[in-house]
Amino acid sequence: MKKIHLVSQSHIDIAWFWQWDPETIHDCCRLTFLRALLILNRVKNYKYVQDQVPFYEAMEKYYPEIFESIKRHISEGRWAVTGCMYVEADIEGLCGESLVRQCLYGKKYFLEKFGVDVKVCWIPDNWTHSPQLPQILLKSGVKYLVYKRGFKEKTVFWWKGIDGSQILACRPPFIPSFLTRPYPNLREAASLYEKYGLENAMVLVGKGDHGGGLTYQEVKNIEKLSKEHEGLQIFFSTPEEFFTAIEKEIKEKRVKLPVLRGELGWELVGCLTNRFELKKLNRLCENNLLSAEKFSTIAYAYNLLAYPEEKLRKLWKILLFNQFHDIIGGTVVEEAYETAVSGLNRVLGEAKQLLINALKTISSQIDTSKYNVNIIVFNPLSWERTDAVEVELTVPSTWSKIKLVDYSGKKALLQVLSVVKQSPSKKTVKVVFIAENIPPLGYKVYGVEEEKAEEKSELKALDNVLENSFYKVSLNEKGFIESIYDKELEVELLKNPIKLQLIEDLGDSEGRLLLGKDDFNIYTGKSIEVNTKPTVKLAEKGPVRTRLRVLRNHLSSKYIQEVVLYSKIKRVELRLLVDWHEKQKVLKTIFSFNIQQPKLTCGTQFGAIPREFSEEESPFYRWIDVSEENKSHGITVLAPFNYSYDTRNTSIRLSLLRSTVKPMLATDEGLHETVYALYSHKEDWRQAVKPSFELDNKLIPIVENRHKGKLPPTYSFLEINPPSAILTALKKAEDNEEIVLRLNEPYSRKTAVAVSLNIPYTRILLANLLEKPLKPLKSPKLSLKPFEIISLKLTK
Known about the structure:
Strand 19 (460-461) and strand 20 (465-467) form a beta hairpin. The model has no long low-confidence stretch (mean pLDDT 96). The chain folds into 5 domains: 2-266, 7-stranded beta/alpha barrel, CATH 3.20.110.10; 267-365, Substrate Binding Domain Of Dnak, Chain:A, Domain 2 (Up-down Bundle), CATH 1.20.1270.50; 375-455 and 698-705, Sandwich (Immunoglobulin-like), CATH 2.60.40.2210; 460-683, Beta-galactosidase, Chain A, domain 5 (Distorted Sandwich); 717-796, Immunoglobulin-like (Sandwich). By secondary structure, it is α+β, with helices and mostly antiparallel strands. The protein has 13 helices and 48 strands. The strands form 10 sheets. The chain has a 9-stranded antiparallel β-sheet with strand order 26-27-28-29-38-35-34-31-32. The longest helix is centred in the middle third of the chain and has 30 residues, at 334-363. Helix 9 packs antiparallel against helix 10, helix 9 (276-301) packs parallel to helix 12 and helix 10 (309-321) runs antiparallel to helix 12 (334-363). It is 23% helix and 36% strand.
């Protein structure tokens, strides 16, 4: 007999055409849950399913009687908690650690409040799925996935991620209503599973978005319906009960389900560009929270600082909340958007303050006794790097020039940008300098002295040409970059000039690129080149940095583009300031690279994914690489604040802004500032992984006076040898005093590494992503598989 598992649920958007508070809390959740509880009390065989932690937190805060009733029905097995994540987040735009924290805080809440270890990832409405999700879920104790958007060819299958991890995935049919006859044909639903040899089928039922779920009358209609379908056993169930049933069938009947390898697909891709400010703030919040955790953990390990776990946890939850797919996807009403921006700005500000507090605490223990004024440059990333640092210094007014010297006596290249303020005895100047070879997750101290000699530089600048030891960049009369010559590779990187392009957007703010079609992912409108006559000028020329500025007005908007080169840093930095007032258009930057046999690879969470050149708008994380198939060389677009692109022939079109007029009006109108860069390299995409993090995870300066200290002037708190894995997190454990350290192999290669830890510890354990110990280790020497994520726990 065929068994139909009816999963009664109500999809509730945290925010969409309404705000979280008051409407979602006091209308959507309260009324939906009261209805579900009423039916549970009246119909003994009824079961209800609900996900998302904030709903339960809101009920406990505002309606404790509803919360207690839910809790009682959970204990009876009739109200099922599903969804391992804190919210139904969109996936591809988030950093890997955000996905880990979604699972960590989601599962932790449900286990602590209800004693439920959630085994199902429930994301029926989000539009993208990371190919690393199977590994993240499995290492978070999650075995099953329920989704809707994206891959539609199979109903139930094994999804295998890029590391080889696989989970059982289901895209069940959905029936919103059973109010009137003729009722939906459940035999058709059963047939979707029957073709795989399965007797069990899952069907989602109940209205959603604004909540609702099944009514009592619909439940009674379903009871009647079950009697009318001979050969079908129809009953209310839960996702986990369904998956357990088909696992039994797979084992006992040796059912072979199809296997999908790699990507699960995407829909509503306009959401990857909507509301640029949310995308940018999300990335900045992620970066600063992770850096604050790292250095707070180091200070905690050295017994210098109480770890600010409650503050960090609170900030993470605000960030996770705003990663809900409609919020970060920019489909919400203006009031909800403004609330999200306010919340993310709060996270960013407080995370920065926690980071500075930790760095100042560590700085107080560093030996800076050689100079009266010192700059301690901290590196939040786990590899040695050289990059530019901006800082304000107060020095005697009599100093005509300034120099910075590290404690080995090597002088840093420095450029004075401006005098911020001046008195008869002192002046405060803003400078930029090149900090070289800053140790991994460590620091280097520079002393401040008066300089007598002039700075010498490799940089050259004319009205339309910039040059350093790596590149010669030329602009044409239209203000477009027409040539980037790589001196090391001895190749011209561009086939055609880099241009801004406006494309007529035929879609809506819901993410559709064509009205009425969720899964149509191609921009088909007319293209308009942003090519009005520009004003080009040399905006900055110095020994550290030089900038060309291109100003132009086009249609209703104003554009300021800057091309930036640095000494000793290999990247061409492209800055863009737009006062955007276009309607029903998307703004893209077009890169046409001089690659003869191009191979396209994109960054994803904890790894990379090969792609075909396609006109379809597609998600990426941090970088897009085009390399020669023979691996001689390649070029990478580094774009940490942008989440999607498409291609035309072999040209990359990076999506920057999108401004639809319905149902939300001109969603990206206003002032926006962003940065992206080009990085050329030998071999293939693997060379671009670390530079993609360096662009937006800047070196951090702390100005410190003269004092003695136990820590030396140059130091690394953690080093990975060889540097074939990267540190993605360093934090205090959630439930005890241990320290959690997470590593990732991002290059698709087997590797063996030794982690050199200058952090006090007595014991080391292998752990899962929920920070649960798996086994003790003799030493921090590890073997990692391609794209593997490994967590360690250190006991102080």
